[in-house]
Design goal:
Helix content: 40-55%
CATH class of the largest domain: Alpha Beta
Structural class: alpha/beta
Number of strands: 6
Low-confidence stretches: none
CATH superfamily of the largest domain: HAD superfamily/HAD-like
Oligomer: single chain
Bound molecules: magnesium ion
Strand content: 5-15%
Number of helices: 10
CATH topology of the largest domain: Rossmann fold
Strand order of the largest sheet: 3-2-1-4-5-6
Mean pLDDT: 96
Distance between the termini: 11 Å
Number of domains: 2
Largest sheet: 6 strands, parallel
Shape: globular
């Protein structure tokens, strides 16, 4: 773990990384996507779900599949699906303290929208700690784990990949980061599709508790 002392750039995924997947925030987003598809394509919810999951697996995000196959407005989609209840997200003081203590620049790197990211970090009390939010609009709706957004975030913020660490709950999204020379951390979870490939060599570290993991790094001498 000592090698992590040299990290200068901290890249965090948002959903199910900066807050626990057990909060069910992302479940709501998931349901709103089904409902968006049902309305737009005029199909029942059951069929909408099948389409949604097919697109997610084939195109890495449901949005990407909808854009490739239907004439929809990306901003309308993002606004609709992120309009969820965040009331049960609680302030996370420990996470706030540990992120604040990290040396270097901190970024959020998400397949979601900037406004959703801002709503979430405000709710858990870690706003003002980040040097930037790179969202799905910044990547022209091309999602992780396609290589393009990784190259774009590096370019946008002038990152040096060998001094970057990327922290994420969907294991396969770590592979491009690894290929670019970044360190990778998988947030352990029981979602089968998120855990897929988590035993690969492109996962350097894994943790069940992000605050504790960052705390351990902050304590390195
Ligand atoms: Mg995530």
């Amino acid at each position: 773990m000592k090698e992590l002392k040299k990290i200068k750039y901290w890249l965090f995924d948002l959903d199910n990384t900066l807050y626990s997947g057990e909060t069910k925030v992302f479940d709501q987003v998931d349901k709103k996507m089904s409902s968006f598809i049902s309305k737009k394509l005029n199909v029942d919810i059951k069929e909408a779900r099948i389409i949604q999951k097919n697109y997610f697996h084939k195109y890495n995000t449901t949005l990407n599949g909808m854009l490739k196959n239907h004439n929809i407005d990306a901003e309308e989609f993002l606004e609709f699906v992120h309009d969820v209840n965040l009331d049960f997200l609680e302030k996370d003081l420990k996470l706030k303290n540990e992120i604040a203590k990290l040396n270097g620049k901190k970024f959020i790197f998400t397949n979601g929208s900037r406004s959703h990211a801002n709503n979430v970090i405000k709710k858990i009390g870690i706003e003002n700690l980040f040097d930037g939010i790179f969202d799905i609009t910044d990547s022209n709706y091309v999602p992780k784990p396609l290589m393009d957004p990784y190259n774009k975030i590096i370019k946008k913020y002038g990152l040096e990949p060998e001094y970057c660490i990327f922290i994420e709950d969907i294991a396969r999204n770590l592979e491009p980061a690894f290929k670019l020379g970044m360190k990778t951390v998988w947030i352990k979870n029981n979602e089968p599709w998120a855990a897929e490939q988590s035993d690969s060599s492109f996962v350097h570290y894994q943790t069940e508790n992000l605050s504790k993991f960052l705390g351990d790094i902050n304590e390195l001498k």
